[in-house]
Amino acid sequence: MRPLRGPARPRPRPGARATLAALLALPLAGALLVLAPAAPAAAAEDVATEEAVVTSGTGADAAELDTTVYVPGSAAGEPAPAVVLAHGFGGSKDSVADDARFLAERGYVVLTYSARGFGASTGQIGLNDPRFEVADLSTLLDRLAERDDVLLDGDGDPRVGVAGASYGGALSLLGAGYDDRVDAIAPQITWNSLTAALFPSQVGDAAADTVASTPQDADSGVYKRLWSGLFFGVGSVPTGGLLDALGGAGAGVTALPQRDAADVDPALVEQLLTCGRFRADICAAYQDAAATGTLTPEVAAVLDRSSPATVLDRIQAPTLLVQGTQDSLFGLGQADANARGIAANGTPVKMVWYAGGHDSQASERTTESLRTEVAGWFDWYLRDVGDPGRGTDPGTGFQFPAPTGLAAGIGSVQGGNQTVLATEYPGLTGDDAAQRAEIAVAGPVQPVVTPAGGTPAAITVVPGLGSLGAALSGSTFEIPGQFAAFDSEPLEEAVEVVGATTVDLAVASPSGSATLFAKLYDVGPDGQQTLPSGLVAPLALTGLPADPTAPTEVAVTLPAVVHRFEAGHTMRVVVSSTDQAFALPAEAAVYSVALADGDGATLAVPEVDGRTETGGGTSRWWLLLGAVVALGLLGWAAAVLWGRRQRRRISVVEPDGEEVPLRFTGVTKAYKDGFVAVRDLSFEVRRGQVLGLLGPNGAGKTTSLRMLMGLIRPTEGRISIFGHAAAAGAPVLSRLGSFVEGTGLQPHLSGRDNLRLYWAATGRPAADAHMDEAIAVAGLGAAIDRPVRRYSQGMRQRVAIAQAMLGLPDLLVLDEPTNGLDPPQIHAMREVLRSYAATGRTVIVSSHLLSEIEQTCSHVVVMAKGQKIAQGTVDEIVGTGGAVLVGLADDAETERAIAVLEGLPGVSAERTDEGLVAELDGTSRARALQALIEAGLEVDAFTPRRRLEDAFLSLVGEERA
């Protein structure tokens, strides 16, 4: 094996024509690069393949690398440049087989291999450890140098380029830093510092010259728990199974002598089960990080040695950096750091950002454009001058997707096929520093609660799926009370953010430390907010004061994004205490978060000027596009007209809205799988009514309430609250108080603090809360100041109902309000609701306790199978049917009364424990009562015998029949 060599000499020269895709949808998927035909430099030719096992390393650290070399027929007569393709984490040489064959057909000798610990290669995973994986690359370059069909630049020096994504991209950077025989590289969606990637803390002053510079605290960070767990899970199971691992049969671990399972060392079994194919130090570092969530010097040492950041000053191979804007694993700041470090050597660097990454697959058009970029880079730096396939100088510019105001959802990315081209990546040469606009944001000092154990936590990023909120029509999953928000004024003109925005905050914490997550939201005029690229900036803060009146000022770098904030939109900085993708503090605390300059601060927003281009094609393609655009414009015009008509219809305020607080009109909710939860539901509720919503499980009650609250949208129909259409973010929802599907209380806070925190999250004045009235409703006495975790279910229920009544809303919606209450509490709650409605307000109650509905509600809507089957007052519903209870002044007259009643058409009567019961079938109650009086019987009581439960069962039974 050739020894590793020191810093490379600058040797920019031509190279391999590799039309490689620069994306990896998931690093765990194994698929690395995708090739597509480009204008051929030569006709495709026959390709032969050579399989070989190459030994790399010595002794216990030796590995058998499974390799394949793709050899074009032309290489037998004229040596060709070589390309090494490295796969992503969890992949193998098979992941890049199609790419290799394509390159070989174009005249290149291509070497693919499975990294140690993957595929059929032995050895243990060292995460691109220079002693192992990087040394393996040098061993493979030695093999290429020994081939007669590979072009050499000197003895033992093949002309070679290295390309890879994610895991393979880091290998290309490290390989170029340790072995100066590498002539050009194209690392894609990879890391600069594995420590900063897995323990980020975007606190401190960023390098101002570049647009995506992201600071990192060298001593601490917030552990990226979900991504780390995915990585370790992929590498922790031996590829051949446990017994194969123990026998060394293709297990990805150092081979051991074959043995009977009974003779296996239990310690070895435990090591394989817990660490799998990872080296012991990697396994120990992961287990330590996963258990504690903290960055120790030992963990940092393991991650740092696998980080290209340690060798950037050695890299002199021209570098094309490709990074995705949809990447919660290795963000744009990682590529920025690589660019700054490599360019400082005078090495040519070109930066390409694209709409995609580890969280979202790029579009086909974007993929095709990236293939052209990578191919052009290798064409220029690996092919000889005069070679017709060399192409044109790709330069050292910067390109990125044209900013749009769209949010990326699961499986999709923002933007279309437009790309912005700039002459330089700002700040690399020192002559063209980044431009930043200043946007003022404002907001008061705000308390931010971190719950015990970090639960519940905000949901913003799902590894491999990106922004969950964006995937759900822009909805976000911030927890009330767990975040502070600071807004700009509505923008007078659009702002295109290209890179990482910065802002100064002021933070205090009673413990002296805080874990926070900063985000930059786009808020539309309708209040709908989206999180560009679904990205957050973790902040690990220490040395904070406990006094919120004397906080510490903190410089924060928000996530680097490419996003257009349209005119009329608001830029919102949100600082939250939780995020489910990260490790969180176990102890509960309340932080104080404010802007550094009191009620105001400035966002420094990076902007980049450039020339916008659209993906090219043939003139026929443009004609087709023109036709599509023309049709699209016609459709758009029709949609606009229809939308205006719809908005006019929806925005109409019903004239009787103040008298009819709630109205459902033809409401249907259908799902994509064909299930209809609610069908053509229509009813109305007037002021002063207490309406009971009844129905068996699956009747559509909860769906109806969720539509009413604006949580989901009806497929058809209209729901109006006080005459205004109900929808997410509608101002009229401020007149609604609700308690649906769980209390949502913070267990570590007292009942009183929960009420205060909930009201503070609404942003309304404290005086409007009517806190004393709500606390009286809870009826907990001194217990209102004890932590909620000590409450019984009934006590929690009462606090939650009081929370819904904060502000004395005009419309109160309660789902199962008496769950967990004892009979006296149920009676008290009944009186509260009746009294509340008596003030002219309206109450909606959904409950399965029919006796309580009967005693509490004035009106009832009965649902079954998503449809309304009855509506009316309780008396009307109960009175439907013919059973009456007859009370006589003289029991001795009972037999004569029975005779009188049974003399009427369809009437039967009998003596029961309750008294005389008559079933009226075809005879009205008035006629039966008249007959008894005419017979001279003295009637003390004549009341319907049926209860609401009986009516309900009868109605639902009829519907089911």
Automatic annotation (TrEMBL):
It comes from the Bacteria. Pfam families: ABC_tran, Peptidase_S15, PepX_C. Residues 662-890 form the ABC transporter domain. The keyword Signal applies. Keywords: ATP-binding, Hydrolase, Membrane, Nucleotide-binding, Signal, Transmembrane, Transmembrane helix, Transport. Coiled coil: none annotated. The chain crosses the membrane at residues 621-642. GO terms for molecular function: ATP binding; ATP hydrolysis activity; dipeptidyl-peptidase activity. PANTHER family: ABC TRANSPORTER, ATP-BINDING PROTEIN. Belongs to the ABC transporter superfamily. This is Alpha/beta fold hydrolase. It comes from Geodermatophilus sabuli.
